[in-house]
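Technical note accompanying the year-one report. For the benefit of new consortium partners, we illustrate the data format agreed upon in the data management plan: each record pairs a sequence with a structure-token string. No post-processing was applied to the example shown here.
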Amino acid sequence: MAGIPVDKVVDISETREENMLERVCPVCSSGQHYSVHSVNFEDNIGLLSGYNVVACSDCGMVFATPLPEPSVFEHYYTTLSKYDSSLENISIYDQERFQLITKFISTFLKNETRVLDLGCGSGGLLRELKKFGYTHLFGLDPSKAVADYYEGKKSNIKVFTGYLETCEIPRENTYDLIILEAVLEHIPDVHAFLGNVLKLLSKDGLLYIGVPNLWEFKKCNDGPFQQFSIEHINYFSSVSLNNLMNEKNLSMLSIEQIMLPGAPGIFASGIMGIWKREINKMNNKIVKDNYGLEALKDYITLSMMMLNNIEEILKSVKQNEREIYVWGTGTHTFRLLAATSLGTCNIKAFIDMNPHYVGRLVRNIPIKLPGSWLDSSTPILISSKIAQSEIEQYIKTDLKLSNPIIKLYRD
């Protein structure tokens, strides 16, 4: 496909940067890769300012490099998590996803199965499993708020706090099913992480994995380059994911490619699969993902088109020279600050519903919760596609504000 350059093969031994760690392939551990796209973020609350999206020369796995040390990611997820903010009110879209996952895995389980959901977030999937009659339910999440919530509810869902490597969680082949839903795309050292996961899995235990689907990124219409987020650093296809499982002596029982709604008219691509542990498994052959790179190029082209459309809107905002509020301080905003005219607009304040962000500064501009302090004459620019309609309704209906609204996307 024309227009998307692919750089020469890069050997990581020649490209080390201070305080950033170059990665080998998360699947086959090759040190050679093709650089495909450079991602940049601005003032991103301390996690990272960018990375290169690369494709492994040997197996085709797509991933981000270089990255900060794993301890930087641990600090971020412990102190700035946005996943503990929906404990009481799980969205209808997450509920639909949890119902789909539960239906998928329930065909392989008995009600007495001991289930561990690693990176359980709100615990919504565990709640759905409870509705299906499962009674031995455990979770692990970096945010203490999640464990406190379920302890307060006195439910039979037990959530541990911390990270797999260090937390006090029952070990030694304890669990019959381990769930990694929306987890592996976040993990800097995938092999080390899975090694620790498998220590908890029973002899004939099952591993469920759900991740975004690289092959269908071009169908994800949640904004330009949103699949290359601050947090997502591994980009799997069904081929690369099964390659990884083969490396860990796991045999695939079932795998599906799915599309899920994330908001009205917004869809996300995904893979969900379940694998069985086989200690004496011999067939560990890696199959090269020959389609992943082309799918990646298609996604980059579509994202550039979206970014160019946004830039035209932002140029008009800049020419107006009026002060604006920017609603949202996630990946979408950090990318626009680095790649568009947003960074040169007259931003009065950032607004965000995540209490962990409030009081911090972006470009020396404060992040605040929405409230009565808002000047009704100052326009509010909504920096989100997936939540644009929801935010607009909240501004008008819940906050009853009459501020002019600047939208970056058509409804």
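Partners are asked to follow this layout when depositing records. The first strand starts at residue 9 and ends at 11.
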